[in-house]
Amino acid sequence: MEKRPIYPDRVRKIPRQFSWVDHRLVQHRHIDRLSHQAAALYLFLVTVADAGGLSYYSNESLTARLGMSDDTLMEARKELTGNGLVAYRKPLYQILPLTPRRPDLETMAGEVQPLGKILDRIGKGAP
Question: What is the pTM of this model?
Answer without folding.
Answer: 0.69
